[in-house]
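The material for today's practical consists of a large collection of protein records. There is nothing in a record beyond a sequence line and a structure line. Backbone structure tokens are a discrete shorthand for how the chain folds in space. Nothing more is needed to start thinking about how sequence determines fold. As an example, a complete record with its sequence and its structure tokens follows.
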Amino acid sequence: MSGKLIDNNRKRRGRPKTIDYDTTLAIAVNAYWSKGIDGMSVNEVCRLAKVSKPSLYREFGNEDGLLNAVFKYYGAGFHEKVNSVLNKRNGLEKNLEDLIHFVSFSGNQSISPKGCLAEKGYQSLERLGEKGKLGLEFCTHGTLDVFDEWVARTHDEMSLGKDWNRKLITEFIFSIFTHAMKMNGLGSSPEKIKRITTLALSPLVNRLN
């Protein structure tokens, strides 16, 4: 018997896959993002994804494993979007204007869900197990890394004193960005988010409209 046939036989053993992993994960991300961690349950995720709870647990282990995958999936997509905003190489002021436009959701108010899934994760931190917290940390550190790389590239263009090192600037921008995303999740208008974020980020440049 050939090695390939043996491998195929081994793949047929055990429980067959009963759910589509990627589709189920995408539905779970949208569900937790829309309702928040405390506002969503595994049973409701199963209902929305049209899968059984045992099938879901076979793929993800338990809700903690599911949330780990949810935060990582969300984080990977989110980091890609922020990277695309900051890596246009149009200069500091244009980058900041694009970032403010992005974080205020000014371009498309039909975008849903609102707010930041990571921020909602921190609001429900007590509910998360170890795996869920690791997924949340992956999301947070990834966003910080995106800003850190951008600050490293644009630092010389910034209108800040020597006391502002790269780490401080990164954390400063991250805190403003996080607050803006929270405002969006709470239903603040794009114009209000834009004005507050513009004012908060204005120390980085001499002129920011």
